[in-house]
Write a structure and sequence with these properties.
This protein has 17 helices and 16 strands. By secondary structure, the protein is an alpha/beta fold. The longest helix is centred in the C-terminal third of the chain and has 21 residues.
């Protein structure tokens, strides 16, 4: 029997939640076009849509907010964050942004030209879209084991080094403006990447003089996995591991709404002075002055505090083991998930759980709809709704290898009884899984369609 870890905190403030009636949930889904993003949050009982910006800030973060310096240029809060950035990440320059996708947008708009390519282990949705929006091609070169749902691999998010070097030689260095890696690998189950792999990826990029950027929104969780699983790092602190990780890169971006445990914020950090000047000019156009970006001074203060809190070992141990607890309980039912469980979420293999629903009818969407209709739980589809796209040459639909539903656990928000409720709802769904049917699109934008698409049940 899996044991839920004890929370390393006490609850000081509470937010009421309510399970609305089945009839109200049915109506809410009809009104939303069966897209969970469009369901009002007050009609959701347990919200596992995302772990981005949904965490509970600490007393120290709330206290720091009251010290926010709202000066337009050169605010004290900026210099406090700058010191934290230097301590953890070690890059020469950085700019704050309102969230990670703003950093991606600025980097992509400067560096990507039509017909170029950006390799990574697996790009997540906004990164993928920002690259495509500039006419580039995002390329996923994760190891093949990432697609073996049941196989236990300690670092399933690793980049395939052979594929990476072959890709560079095939496409040409001149057509690759920068290379990336995502830690942890969100699109592939929240799986960590080893320090050995990060170091090797860096060596390949530097061999070909390709700038290397790390998508670091869950870097702290990745550091803890390295400490727990990688030989030679058991005695290292997550901070020490983070410092080594980023020493191998030329830059990084982060949606700080994840491992910095803030409700808004991000950054783009780098070492190249000329590129920094271009980034700063683009930031002024899109976000704001370089010492505040898209944030208020109070947001900078909360971010500076949260970056260190996200690296605390007792918190990370609780965080990782809460996810593992839910994963083990789900597996006991017989529901297939990506193994081993990642840090921030459980990824259900909806394609295997609902084999009677073809990819063209979105099995992941069917499961997310069932979660809400049966139990008021909101998850997110990570499959053909999110990642299927037409081939630019043939026009045929290219489907992803995995049809997943992600249950992302907000940081420091839900207790064991909440998690047990989720497991019980999943048990009900599993017992009646053959009765669920697929969905078809009634509206779909070209990019990031999962946010605003509308559906009709079949």
């Amino acid at each position: 029997m899996p044991i839920h870890p004890a929370e390393p905190f006490r609850i000081k403030s509470v937010e009421p939640i309510k399970l609305v009636s089945k009839e109200e949930r049915i109506q809410a889904m009809k009104n939303a076009g069966y897209n969970l993003f469009a369901v009002p949050a007050e009609d959701v009982y347990i919200d596992l849509l995302t772990d981005s910006g949904t965490g509970a800030m600490s007393q120290n973060q709330w206290a720091a907010i009251m010290q926010g310096d709202e000066s337009y240029a050169g605010a004290r809060s900026y210099y406090r964050l700058k010191a934290v950035m230097e301590k953890i990440f070690g890059f020469k320059y950085f700019v704050p942004t309102h969230q990670g996708r703003a950093a991606e947008n600025i980097l992509a708009s400067i560096m990507i030209k039509p017909g170029t390519y950006v390799p990574s282990n697996m790009h997540f949705d906004t990164t993928d879209a920002n690259i495509r929006a500039q006419g580039g091609s995002p390329e996923n070169l994760v190891i093949d084991d990432a697609f073996d749902i049941e196989k236990y691999v300690p670092f399933k998010g690793n980049m395939d080094l052979v594929k990476l070097e072959q890709f560079i030689n095939e496409k040409g260095v001149e057509n690759i403006p920068f290379g990336a890696i995502t830690i942890t690998n969100n699109a592939g189950g929240g799986q960590p990447i080893s320090l050995e792999n990060i170091k090797a990826v860096s060596k390949i990029y530097r061999k070909y003089k390709i700038p290397f950027f790390i998508d670091s929104c869950r870097f702290a969780e990745n550091c803890y996995f390295i400490k727990m699983r990688e030989k030679g790092y058991a005695s290292h602190t997550p901070l020490e591991i983070a410092q080594e990780i980023f020493s191998y890169a030329d830059g990084a971006w982060m949606s700080a709404k994840k491992d910095a445990i803030v409700n808004i914020g991000g950054f783009l950090a780098l070492n190249d002075e000329k590129l920094f000047q271009e980034v700063s000019n683009a930031l002024i156009l899109r976000e704001g002055f370089p010492t505040y970006g898209g944030l208020a001074g109070r947001d900078l203060e909360a971010l500076a505090t949260g970056l260190f809190e996200g690296l605390e070992e007792d918190y990370l141990a609780y965080r990782i083991n809460q996810t593992a607890y839910v994963a083990e309980k789900i597996k006991e039912i017989g529901i297939p998930i990506i193994e081993p469980p990642g840090g921030h979420a459980i990824y259900i293999d909806a394609g295997t759980m609902l084999p009677h629903i073809p990819q063209s009818e979105f099995p992941g969407q069917a499961l997310t709809a069932a979660l809400y209709l049966v139990g008021g739980i909101r998850g997110v589809e990570i499959g053909s709704v999110m990642f299927a796209h037409p081939d630019p040459e043939t026009g045929e639909m290219v489907y992803p290898k995995l049809e997943l539903v992600r249950l992302a656990i907000p940081r420091r928000v839900y207790t064991q009884s909440h998690m047990d409720y989720v497991v019980n709802v999943l048990k009900k769904i599993y017992e009646q899984r053959v009765s669920f049917r697929g969905y078809k699109l009634t509206y779909s934008p070209d990019l990031l369609r999962h946010f605003t698409a509308r559906f009709k049940p079949l």
